[in-house]
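#dry-run=false #mode=assembly
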Amino acid sequence: MKYKGIIFDLDGVICSTDEYHYLAWKALADRLEIPFDRERNNLLRGVSRMASLDIILEKAEKTYTADEKAAFAEEKNDLYRQLLRRMTPDDLPDDVKTALDALRKAGLKLAIGSSSKNTPFILEQIGLGSFFDAVADGNCITHSKPHPEVFLKAAEMLGLAPKDCLVVEDAHAGVKAAVAGGFDCAAVGDARDDMRAAYHLDRLTQLIPVI
Ligand code: B16
Ligand code: MG
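#status=ok
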């Protein structure tokens, strides 16, 4: 086999929480009368909560204090978590489930590498709370993507070198992070055509012939 482990991004790769991020940021931006649409939302993929807020506030007409910004981030996260509460194992797409089961059966170690501090909650909601061999997330890093820290941490938790792991990402910031860390990357979704990725996939089951 070409790889010993696969590190999956969470939002936008394993499940569609990216839509919930959009709805929660959109509600905040509307309240503050700041222009925000799906195109700008794509800039937030893989980027930490506070860095995402800074990108949104670039379009604001006034500047905000650190305390105001902390309150905005909390307001967005509260709304986002209300939306996450609706998720169930039915929100795990069939194609993702089939791919995860086939890759595990093939003997690969499987990990999550996500910028999200809500990762443990999301994995519980979709029935994958104890599925992965390692989970590196926003709670255990100091630099968010495009810094490679989260993927390096996941590889270390798996006991594997970056060259033996494939990263699966939907964000340009995530593809950049993977390549910076010395990983091959399979790009899906919004980042599918990112030229820095080694593979460009429409569905996760397309990983099976790649490995
Ligand atoms: P939270 P990923 C990222 O997750 C999201 O893509 C990004 O939009 C979000 O701002 C970030 O997590 C932080 O999420 O507010 O839940 O800590 O794509 O790296 O799995
Ligand atoms: Mg993502």
